[in-house]
Every structure is written in structure tokens, then in C-alpha cells.
Design brief:
This is ArsR family transcriptional regulator. This protein has seven helices and seven strands; from the N terminus they run H-H-E-H-H-E-E-H-H-E-E-H-E-E. With 168 residues, the chain is an alpha+beta fold. A four-stranded mixed sheet has the order 6-5-4-7, covered by helices on one side. Strands 1-3-2 form a three-stranded antiparallel sheet. The longest helix has 15 residues, at 130-144.
């Protein structure tokens, strides 16, 4: 869906990153995360910043980017990204009913902006309801026609490569 509207794969990855949650990032970490050259990421960051969709601020010698929540199209883009990911309802239900979810990440292809048909997630928390997770996986497949694979971790390893969609 998004790839038919937006022709740059790097731009899609950036939109998914910044508009799926209150994520921020800097050039080198984004290039590494997306497995793209720093130049291609820089070009797209500049375009999105010039369009007013992203804000940048200096953090020492590093320029940090984040979504411009004051942009007139912020909510519309955020909604499109949520629908593309097909996880807006799923995440809300999981967080409310799973127990003590500290963080939730989308990893794998969807985090890279690729619709492979399988959504990979990592949930971080203790005493999470595995039965409910099995139930919601089936419901998600029925609703959005995507397989959901979920790994549950007790604590954050600190090096999860993906899009943080819940938690801080």
C-alpha cells in the first residue's frame, strides 16, 4: 500500500519508524538499522525535514530527528502507518490484556517497510498471558490476513533492532 504511494523504500522505512510511535533517531543509527547507506538516509531525512514532517535538533554533535507532531498531516500519516502495519488494534489489545508489558517492538520485514505477510514482534515483560497471545494471533490473521510471530522476553536486552511501538 505505502510502496505504491511512496516510491522511495528508505522514505517508507523512515515514515514507519517515526510515525508508528514517538521514536527518534540519528543518521548513523538509522542507516545501520535499515541497512542503507548514510547518504540515502541523509537525503530522505533532509526531504522529510524540508517538508516539515520531521523535526531535527542538535544533541551535542549529533542531529536527532523525530516526527513533527504539529504538522497538519501528522495524524493522517500516523493512521496510514498504523493501517499499513495492521497492528493498531492488536497492540492496544495486547497491552491492555497481556499483563505487565513494558515494551513492544515490531522487528523483521515490517520494521524495514516490507510487507512479507508475517509480522514479527518482541514483547518485553513479566508474567504475560500466553493463552491470550495465542488467541489474539489467530484473530489477527483472520482480521488482517497476516501471520504474527511473537517472542517474549523478561527484560530488555537493550539492542532490539526494530520499531518501538509501546513503552519508553
Amino acid at each position: 500500500m505505502l510502496d505504491s504511494l511512496v516510491t522511495s523504500k528508505t522514505r517508507i522505512k523512515l515514515l514507519l519508524k517515526f510515525f508508528s510511535h514517538t521514536n527518534s533517531g540519528y543518521l548513523r543509527s538509522l542507516a545501520k538499522e535499515f541497512e542503507e547507506s548514510t547518504n540515502s538516509v541523509r537525503v530522505e531525512l533532509n526531504r522529510l525535514t524540508e517538508a516539515g514532517l520531521l523535526l531535527s535538533e542538535e544533541d551535542g554533535k549529533t542531529k536527532v530527528y523525530k516526527a513533527n507532531q504539529g504538522h497538519p498531516f501528522f495524524q493522517e500519516i500516523k493512521n496510514m502507518v498504523s493501517k499499513f502495519l495492521g497492528l493498531d488494534d492488536l497492540m492496544e489489545r495486547i497491552v491492555k490484556r497481556m499483563g505487565d508489558v513494558e515494551k513492544a517492538y515490531i522487528v523483521g520485514d515490517y520494521a524495514k517497510g516490507i510487507d512479507s505477510g508475517t509480522v514479527q514482534m518482541i514483547l518485553i515483560g513479566n508474567n504475560l498471558d500466553q493463552e491470550y497471545l495465542d488467541f489474539i494471533r489467530q484473530k489477527t490473521f483472520e482480521k488482517v490476513n497476516r501471520q504474527v510471530e511473537v517472542d517474549i522476553l523478561d527484560s530488555d536486552p537493550g539492542d532490539v533492532q526494530g520499531i518501538l511501538i509501546f513503552g519508553k
